[in-house]
Structure formats: structure tokens, C-alpha cells
Design a protein that fits this description.
The chain is of the alpha+beta class. The chain has two domains: about 250 residues; about 220 residues, Jelly Rolls (Sandwich), CATH 2.60.120.560. It is built from eleven helices and 19 strands. The strands form three sheets. Strands 1, 3, 4, 5, 6, 10, 14, 15 and 19 form a nine-stranded antiparallel sheet that branches. Strands 9-8-7-2-13-18-17-16 form an eight-stranded antiparallel sheet, with no helix packed on it. Strands 11-12 form a two-stranded antiparallel ribbon. Helix 5 packs antiparallel against helix 9 and helix 7 packs across helix 8. The radius of gyration is 31 Å and the shape is elongated. The two termini are about 40 Å apart.
Length: about 525
């Protein structure tokens, strides 16, 4: 009698082999055993490093004029600290209160949105010394600013209507208060200045930053960066704790060492320095000035992003690997064998995504580390040095974010390319799509009008490159920066999240589609 053994069903074949760890191992084995895929990864690393080095060596800075002599802030960053200051000495604790009307534009007629007029406590009249300032701005209401980078909103202020401002000093602590009517006061915030004991200067100030605009048409950039001048009126000015017997002095901080004038006693008496102007009539002060007290925003490229520029070409090879990792199986018909061994197709695609993403991250990390370490000395040799440019170390938080973020960026691009390959099932079509949605926008942002360039940076997958940006952007400063210099309209994490969303959505659609279609 012959015993016939029934054939095993496909589901029986994969018992013990369809777990996710087993899928990961199988996909990893596929990837590492195909020699040309390993060469593609190596090529991506080499292209990234070499293009980064070329970009660094091509970025030369002409310092024939001696470089920047601007003061630096507490963190070593360039700052602006030039404005008109009408002040008295405050030997110990005390306060200054004033009713402020303005600022209004003198040149041009409309004051810049971040023109400033208000009360100020400053360590001394030296440019770069510590301070706390409470001010009115034409475009952003009442603001409390300190440390050159800290900015706190203090409420709305109607244009042309007076607003009462007050700063009180208690040791090293300065507290800001504002009032719409001079009776009901609300606290805005506190700050500390370096000098906890001893005399400080307190007074009234006006600053008016440059009126800036930038346009681009047909690849040509036109930049307008003109000095402005604004004016404000101060009355009901009281200083508690000031040195008795002293009068107001005007100092143009940061201008020729600080030009000074007397208090302008008498109706209509006027004193003009290089920048500032004070007209005093009884208890009313009319102050005009230019400049700014704020973080510096030089129109310079982001050095860390420059050192990682090669990733913009290296991504093409990473994307090619992501596409081939799925389309090669479709082209050769091996995908049927894969799905017979592992019928849960969605899990197969997710396993492929994990493997190719991990491999791309590892290769991207090697490439970004090498690019940064090799390119940064070249940039320094080409003149990109402090104080015009900050000093960087690999252990700095922003640098680490950029280097690790570049590796994660390439991993997401690999996953995105894998999803496109699964949807299109054509190597040529999928790689062409990657080039259209990622590489082409990277080229266009340097030639399109700025509005369109920023739209591409915000809404397309190239938003992920914002993770490479290390130049601080401050909301309280209007700055000019070209998209091709590494300036993204959104934050670094928001841009990276945009790319991640593209990768997840495309992979999700591919998982859904692969379950519905025949292999």
C-alpha cells in the first residue's frame, strides 16, 4: 500500500519564517549580496564628500577690508548695538517711567516694522554691554528685549497713540511694565543684567534698522539695504533713584565711539550727532535716531550647510538604491517568489523600507561626518572665521543636528524612493520622479523669484534640507537671505517633518496598493 503525502499549502511553508525579524534578515541578505548595490552606496558617500569639498573650496571670502569689527553678544554671535540713547546714571535700585508716542518714520516716511522707541537700562554706554529694553515698535506692538536675542511680546500698541512704559531695577533684576493709560500696569517680564551692584545707565532710546528688500527675476538678484531714521516723543518722564544734580546726556552708542551732547535745555534747543538728535522742550523729549539693538544678521552662507552641500547630489544615488531595491524584483519576476514565501505583502514592503532606510542612514552618517570634518578647515582657510562667522565644533547641538539630520534625510529619501518604486514598478519612472520632486526644486530655488522659491522650500520634499541650517533666525530682526544660501522659511524640524510626511504617505499608499495588485 502506497501512502500519498498531500502537498503542503503555501501558508505551511512560511510557518516560523514570516515573522518581522525573519523578513528583516531576508531583505538585508538580498541587499548585501548584490554587489552593485554596495557600489551604489559607496558612490553616494564619495559623491557627497567630494562635492562638499568642492563647494567649500569654491566659497572664498574677501577680507581685504579687514573683516567685521562688530561687537559680539554673550554667545559669541554678531550683534547690532548702535542707537541714540538719552540717559542718566542710576547708582543703585530705581526705575524709569515714560509716556512714549511713536516711533514714526523720518527717512523714509514710514518707519520700519522693527523700529524701536522706549526705555532702557544698560550696563554702560559701550557698544555690546548688557541691557534690558522695553519699547514700542510700529509693526509688533510693545516688546521687552534683552541679551540681544531675547524677545517677549508685551501686547498691542496703537500707532500714533501714547503708551506708558516702565523698567524697575532691583539688583541684577530688571522688570518691565506697560500701561495703556498710565494707571493700570501689567508686568511683561523680567531679565538680568551683568551688573548686580554699582551704577548703570537708564534712559530713553530710539533705534531704526535698515530698510531692506530683496527681489530676484530671471536669476538676477537686486538688494536694497538703506539706512532709515525714526523719531519718537517722550513725556511724563520720571527716574527714581537717579544721581541728583545731573542732567540728561545724549550718546550715539556705537557711532564713532559714542558721540555725546548735553540735555538741550530750553525751548527748541537742538543737538545733533552723527546719527542721533535730541530736541527738548520742558519735560518733553523728541529723539531721532538710526541703527539697531538686536542680533546681527549678516547676509552670509551657513557654513555647516555649505560643508554638507554634497548631499544634494549624493541623494540621487541613495534614491536609485531605494528604487532598485523593489523594482529589480519586479523586473526579474522574483517578487512572486518573495510573496509566496511571505504572503503578507505590506509587511514585506515595510521590512524593505526599514532595511534600505537603515543602510542609507549609515552611509549618510559616514558621508556627512567626513564632509563636515574635511570641508570645515577648507572654509576657515578661505576666510570664514570669527568674528564674522561663529566658531563651530562637532559636539555643538546645532552641528550634531545638521550632521545626524543629513543622514536621516538620506534615509527618508531612500524610503520615499522605495515607495515610488513599488507604486510605479519601473526603475526609470521612479528615479525620474525622484529627480522631479527633489533635485529639480533644489535647482529652481536658486533662479525662481523669491516667493516661488520659498514656496518650493516649504511645500516640496526639499523642505527636509532645512535640518542642515545652523544660522539662528530671529523673529525680531528683518534679514535678507537667499534660499540657495541655506535659508528656509520654516524651522529645521518643521522642514524635516515635511519630508518625513512625504515618505510615510508614499510608503503607506504603496503598502495599500501592493495588497490590491497582482505581483
Amino acid at each position: 500500500m502506497t501512502t500519498v503525502t498531500p502537498p503542503r499549502r503555501p501558508s505551511t511553508v512560511i510557518v516560523g519564517r514570516d515573522g518581522f525579524p525573519q523578513l528583516l534578515r531576508a531583505e538585508w541578505t538580498k541587499l548585501r549580496t548584490v554587489r552593485r548595490w554596495g557600489l551604489t552606496l559607496l558612490g553616494a558617500v564619495l559623491v557627497t564628500v567630494l562635492i562638499s569639498l568642492f563647494s567649500a573650496s569654491s566659497s572664498r571670502l574677501d577680507l581685504a577690508g579687514g573683516g567685521s569689527t562688530a561687537p559680539t553678544g554673550p554667545g559669541g554671535q554678531p550683534i547690532r548695538d548702535d542707537f541714540t540713547f538719552v540717559h542718566r546714571t542710576l547708582p543703585a535700585d530705581g526705575s524709569i517711567t515714560a509716556r512714549v508716542t511713536g516711533p514714526t518714520g523720518v527717512r523714509p516716511d514710514r518707519a520700519p516694522e522693527w523700529a524701536k522707541a522706549g526705555v532702557l537700562v544698560k550696563e554702560n554706554t559701550e557698544s555690546g554691554s548688557d541691557y534690558a529694553a522695553l519699547m514700542i515698535t510700529p509693526g509688533h506692538g510693545v516688546r521687552f528685549q534683552s541679551d540681544f536675542t531675547r524677545d517677549v511680546a508685551g501686547g498691542a500698541a496703537s500707532a500714533g497713540k501714547p503708551h506708558w512704559l516702565r523698567l524697575t531695577r532691583a539688583g541684577a533684576t530688571v522688570t518691565a511694565y506697560a500701561s495703556a493709560d498710565g494707571r493700570g500696569w501689567h508686568e511683561i517680564g523680567t531679565s538680568r543684567i551683568d551688573r548686580s551692584t554699582g551704577a548703570v545707565t537708564v534712559g530713553l532710546f530710539v533705534a531704526s534698522p535698515n530698510a531692506q528688500s530683496m527681489k530676484r527675476a530671471f536669476g538676477n538678484v537686486s538688494i536694497s539695504d538703506n539706512p532709515s531714521r525714526s523719531s519718537a516723543r517722550f513725556d511724563e518722564v520720571t527716574v527714581k533713584g537717579a544721581v541728583s544734580g545731573t542732567d540728561w546726556q545724549r550718546t550715539d552708542v556705537g557711532q564713532d565711539g559714542g558721540r555725546q551732547g548735553d540735555g538741550g535745555q530750553g525751548s527748541g534747543q537742538q543737538n545733533s550727532g552723527q546719527q542721533g538728535e535730541l530736541v527738548r522742550s520742558g519735560g518733553t523729549f523728541t529723539v531721532s535716531g538710526s541703527g539697531d539693538i538686536a542680533p546681527g544678521t549678516p547676509m552670509q552662507p551657513d557654513l555647516v550647510a555649505t560643508s554638507l552641500n554634497g548631499s544634494q547630489l549624493g541623494l540621487v544615488l541613495i534614491a536609485a538604491l531605494g528604487v532598485l531595491f523593489i523594482t529589480a524584483e519586479y523586473r526579474r519576476g522574483m517578487i512572486r517568489t518573495t510573496f509566496v514565501a511571505s504572503p503578507r505583502r505590506g509587511r514585506v514592503l515595510v521590512a524593505k523600507a526599514v532595511v534600505v532606510g537603515a543602510v542609507a542612514f549609515a552611509a549618510g552618517l559616514v558621508a556627512s561626518l567626513a564632509s563636515y570634518l574635511l570641508s570645515m578647515p577648507v572654509l576657515r582657510d578661505n576666510g570664514h572665521k570669527p568674528p564674522l562667522f561663529p566658531e563651530f565644533a562637532l559636539t555643538d547641538g546645532l552641528v550634531l543636528r545638521a550632521v545626524l539630520g543629513t543622514a536621516a534625510l538620506l534615509a527618508l529619501i531612500a524610503v520615499l524612493a522605495l515607495g515610488l518604486g513599488a507604486l510605479l514598478r519601473s526603475t526609470a519612472a521612479a528615479i525620474t520622479t525622484v529627480i522631479v520632486v527633489i533635485v529639480l526644486p533644489l535647482i529652481l530655488v536658486s533662479v525662481l523669484p523669491l516667493g516661488l522659491s520659498q514656496w518650493l522650500q516649504r511645500l516640496t520634499p526639499v523642505a527636509g534640507f532645512a535640518i542642515q541650517e545652523t544660522t539662528p533666525r530671529y523673529d525680531q530682526v528683518s534679514s535678507l537671505c537667499l534660499p540657495e544660501d541655506g535659508c528656509y522659511p520654516q524651522g529645521a524640524l518643521a522642514g524635516f517633518a515635511t519630508l518625513a510626511a512625504y515618505a510615510v504617505v508614499v510608503l503607506g499608499i504603496a503598502v495599500w496598493r501592493i495588497r490590491k495588485r497582482d505581483a
